[in-house]
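User: For a reading group we're discussing how well predicted structures match intuition. Take NlpC/P60 domain-containing protein. Before you show the prediction, I'll give you the sequence so everyone sees exactly what went in.
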Amino acid sequence: MLALRAHKLSSWREVKVIWGIQVPQQMTETQAFSDLELDSRRNAISELVTAHNYTGLWKMGIEVVEKESAVGESCYETAFPPSIYPRDILTKVISSWEIRNSPKIGDVAIYFNTRSRSTVHLGRITENGRIRSRWGLGGMLCEHSPLDIPIYCGRELTILYFSEPK
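Assistant: Thanks. Here is the predicted 3D structure of NlpC/P60 domain-containing protein, as structure tokens, for the group to look at:
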């Protein structure tokens, strides 16, 4: 399940399920889906990433910004500056940063496993409202829509957007 936008929630219950995907209560089915069924699309993305098929990713609307990281970065190092990573990264973010309804440029998108609430992926919001994130350790750096992440990140996900305190 994938929540498309997070709200300042006191609980995780302010969502509804459309076709097995958690979305905010006010979101319609049309807003929640693209033409392809989400699992099929995310499976296709995983296959293209594994095959290093950059043209296929581009055709799906995913921009490969960097083909691989020479220093073996993961999505964590890419999303946060060295001053924050790796010490207590998520504890700091979740406890002191603001959850946003509408992400702004530079905000962090954190993908959680909906059941275990463990973090599975991180990215930063770009100027066009997309997410820039690294897929895999030392893997490609991509700019993509919030839903367009490889299926190996998990099937039941919740996305929360966080903004650094001023």
